[in-house]
């Protein structure tokens, strides 16, 4: 089973994402900020990370940079989630190592197509 780590400080968004991902046959884990996510990735690297941008403690961008600095044998794919007013962040995130992005609010079809693009559907 493919694994996805959902990283978002919103419990509601994590719940929505989990539901979508489970219907796509992913095993889902959750983290509430970038630092939690990094700890999780170092212990049990998922196939893909669905990454929020704005979070307390450690932001999505800080997480991306920290993930690149780890020596994981296989780096998880990263799909980051942005809002309409976050369009300017897309280029920076891709440069920092994100593989794809989705706009919030996302739906099942969008998530499914992005996972397909990164090779996980
Ligand atoms: Mg957030």
TrEMBL record:
The keyword Flavoprotein does not apply. The modification 4-aspartylphosphate is found at residue 52. InterPro entries: CheY-like_superfamily, Sig_transdc_resp-reg_receiver, ST_Response_Regulator. Keywords: Phosphoprotein. Signal peptide: none annotated. It comes from the Bacteria. Residues 3-119 form the Response regulatory domain. One of its GO terms (biological process) is phosphorelay signal transduction system. This is Chemotaxis response regulator CheY.
């Amino acid at each position: 089973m493919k694994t996805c780590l959902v990283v978002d400080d919103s419990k509601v968004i994590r719940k929505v994402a989990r539901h979508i991902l489970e219907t796509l046959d992913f095993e889902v884990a959750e983290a509430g900020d970038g630092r939690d996510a990094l700890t999780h990735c170092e212990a049990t690297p998922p196939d893909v990370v669905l990454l929020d941008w704005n979070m307390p403690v450690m932001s999505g961008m800080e997480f991306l940079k920290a993930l690149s600095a780890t020596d994981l044998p296989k780096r998880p794919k990263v799909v980051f989630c942005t809002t309409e007013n976050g369009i300017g962040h897309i280029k920076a995130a891709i440069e920092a190592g994100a593989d794809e992005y989705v706009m919030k609010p996302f739906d099942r079809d969008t998530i499914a197509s992005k996972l397909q693009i990164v090779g996980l559907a």
